[in-house]
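Standup notes
- DV: blocked on the single-chain target, sequence here:
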Amino acid sequence: MTDLTIRPARPDELETLRELEIAAGAPFRDLGMDPIADDAPPSTVALRSALERDGLWIIEDGGVVAGYLMDDVVDGEAHLEQVSVHPDHARRGLGARLVEDLVARARADGHHAVTLTTFVDVPWNGPYYARLGFRPLADDELGPGLRAVRRAEIAKGLDRWPRTAMRREL
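- DV (later): unblocked, structure below
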């Protein structure tokens, strides 16, 4: 593996992250999830907001931005909003490294868990996060923040494909 670095994103990289997100979404087309593949990447406003709250992280592979992770706090716990790796750098553990970096930061910040929402049946979503130690949450385990996240996803039409909230204890 080449030289990998995880670091906070910089303001001048927001457009690069948007382009990376478009490329990372393309494999959804192979699953018949064209609306997901065609979904607009996060806006520069959303990315800048994440950057300003220290919730936007980059992984460089040999000096090239290969992936990113956006996180926040939901219901008092660390929440993984998005992790994406460019297809040219996929299947080499870069996403897992970003997730493990979030886990370490969350633990250091005193959180007890990391949560996320994801597609249940997409191999690089639900099954992938299960391998990383996340478990699906029942509806009665969702706090008000995660319920709001799920309502927004439903309103966006994402539940056309099964979705779930997941949690990893720290």
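- Follow-up: The chain has one domain: 4-169.
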